[in-house]
Fold:
Amino acid sequence: MSEENVELVRTLYEIGADPFSVPPDQIDRAFRDYVDGQLEIRLPSDYPEGEPVFRGREGFAEMIAMLADTWGKWRFEPERFLEAGDRVVVFARILAEGGASGVPIEVEVTHVWTIHDGRATSLDAYRDRSQALEAAGLRE
Structure:
């Protein structure tokens, strides 16, 4: 089942790599086909946006709106996918540009997705890869 979980997460990055430009019908399709309706997205406390938790389709829209208030551009570049039972760890980069300043940034991030019955149920973002691996029961 783990390889299927990795493929599911890859599909989600293909759909939402640039969350500012994903058409609403694509987001709806992702929630219909791949994502649990109560998906929880948790950002780390050291993100500029704080440590919010976003739930479901409405929470996803809130997160995108929050990011759009600060950033002119925002996209993910996944680099590596690791199987971890019902979890998938993704080493990625955030490539963004400040909304007011236009200053580009590039930040490493690690996402830990939890998959249950073929649907993504949570996404936890980490700035520290070792913490993410530990949370997924893996080691560096």
Notes: The longest helix spans residues 2-16. The chain has one domain: 2-135. The two ends are 22 Å apart (CA to CA). The chain has four helices and six strands.
